[in-house]
Design a protein that fits this description.
Elements (H helix, E strand, L loop, with lengths): L3 H6 L8 E4 L8 H28 L6 H18 L2 H10 L3 E3 H34 L4 H4 L2 H24 L11 E2 L6 H5 L7 H33 L5 H9 L2 H22 L6 H22 L5 H21 L7
Parallel strand pairs: 1-3
Antiparallel strand pairs: 1-2
Helix pairs in contact: 2-3, 2-4, 2-12, 3-5, 3-7, 3-12, 5-7, 5-9, 5-11, 9-11, 11-12
Length: about 325
């Protein structure tokens, strides 16, 4: 005799009209949290758009380092936009329903750009690795073509992988609850609602999460191991301090992004029971804070970008001043 789960798999798949996102609605002090996220989103949008515009406008910044910085700014902007506006909409309009196809689109956008965020931070580590460990060969190794090729390859690989994992959700049937206990159409909370076999989706979630976290993080750790080895071979203390100082901001980015992600990954992997409100706030902050802090801590603090911003503003001011003709008395 077939089990109910097996018999369900033998009939046509059941796709609901949509899902209800209940995580934010049940959150204590949701009004305060939504206001906070709105401020975060405004800052994220302004700072990242500013960085993108400056890099696009100034040809002096069309170099490998700032191609990587511009890529991170684009990823930050899209990652934040895939989450926060929908959370604001749920709270303001009291409408937590999302259509089935839109749910898959949001799921895809979030995980694609979260993965790109992880790899984009690793790309910046590659730039520091070449600059410090191989300074004499930097211009021949880390060229504009090399950086563009690396970024393009990561985008293609990420888009393809996340497309496959998100498409696997269409093989699930949802014949019972359609209430998603999260703040968006999250992959794991959605596939757990399925009434047929979800082992494929569980495998995707575990394997891809591990790859997207530990592959870039391992590269970053290896890069900084090589950097420290090179730095301590320098004879001058001043040279050591100067080399390490160029890495400080990037290490802060690594800590802000990876520490919360690792904690959440371990909690999910070992199924540690925590307060649902704490889980939702922790998950959302781990996705919303890095896109806000990245341009402030790293991009806008680089010496080259600050000098080009000053130059562009000064040039704009001078052009406007000379365009105003003086009035002469008759």
């Amino acid at each position: 005799m077939q089990s109910p789960r097996t018999s369900i798999q033998n009939v046509s798949l059941i796709h609901p009209p949509g899902f209800y996102i209940i995580g934010l609605i049940s959150l204590t002090y949701a009004n305060v949290y939504v206001i906070f996220l709105t401020v975060i989103y405004v800052i994220t949008t302004f700072t990242n758009c500013f960085v993108i515009c400056i890099i696009c406008m100034d040809h002096h910044l069309h170099v490998p380092k700032f191609i990587a910085v511009g890529n991170l700014a684009v990823v930050d902007l899209v990652l934040s936009t895939s989450l926060i506006p929908s959370m604001i909409k749920i709270y303001l309009l009291k409408d937590n329903f999302i259509e089935y196809k839109l749910c898959l689109v949001q799921m895809y956008m979030y995980y694609a750009f979260l993965t790109l965020e992880s790899f984009s931070i690793a790309i910046l580590a590659f730039d520091r690795l070449i600059a410090i460990c191989l300074p004499l060969r930097q211009n021949s190794i880390n060229t504009t073509t090399t950086m563009t090729t690396i970024i393009t390859s990561i985008w293609i690989l990420t888009i393809g992988t996340i497309t496959i994992s998100t498409s696997s959700m269409t093989y699930l049937s949802f014949c019972n609850s359609v209430q998603v206990n999260s703040y968006f159409c999250d992959y794991a909370p959605v596939f757990r609602l399925a009434c047929n076999d979800n082992s494929l989706q569980w495998t995707f979630a575990t394997v891809l999460s591990s790859v997207c976290i530990f592959v870039p993080l391992s590269f970053i750790v290896l890069s900084y191991t090589c950097i420290l080895f090179s730095v301590f071979q320098m004879k001058s203390v001043e040279s050591r301090f100067k080399a390490l100082a160029t890495c400080t901001e990037h290490l802060i980015l690594v800590a802000i992004f990876y520490i919360p992600i690792l904690i959440i990954f371990m909690i999910g992997l070992f199924q540690v029971g925590i307060n649902p409100d704490v889980r939702i706030v922790g998950l959302s902050l781990s996705s919303c804070i890095p896109p806000c802090t990245n341009p402030i801590i790293y991009s806008l603090k680089t010496k080259e970008l600050k000098s080009r911003v000053h130059f562009l503003f000064q040039r704009t001011f001078n052009i406007q001043r000379h365009s105003v003709r003086p009035l002469h008395k008759k």
